[in-house]
Amino acid sequence: MGQVVIFEEEQKDLLAVCERLVRDALAKAIFIVDRDGQLVAETGETSGLDTTGLASLVAGSTAATGGLALMLDEDEFTMHTHQGANASLHISPIGETMILLVIFDERSSQGLVGLRVKRAHIALEEILVRVKSRNADEGNGAMDIFGEITDDDIDSLFNDAF
Length: 162
Prior knowledge:
Blueprint: H1 8-24, E1 29-34, E2 39-44, H2 51-71, E3 80-83, E4 88-94, E5 98-104, H3 110-138, H4 151-161
Antiparallel strand pairs: 1-2, 1-5, 3-4, 4-5
């Protein structure tokens, strides 16, 4: 799908769904990551986490899991989990472009997280449909703010700065 522009309204809607999910699932943190490993939204207990590294690893893990699915004649696994002594992860794709990561601990359970994620997925997919539609309407090329800048403009900018 290429570069996706998420507008402020949809960003707020994504964050609202994540904030509700972190409460309803008793999760520590919720992240939405694009398939390229860029962080799109985060909420919950995120301080102390390398969110950039986390987003990149989640995208890589999802890509690897996708490869495993193809080896088993599956289109995709709809979710995967990792359970640890102190923290667990629930990772699931949202549409074709995004990934949902839920971090939870002993305050919650895999069952509760799975149940709450199902409801959140519907809302998240609806938002991503709007994002895709707005990107198509805007033509994505029209969103390229650097497209009209010439080499002379850049030279002028730097000459004026010094």
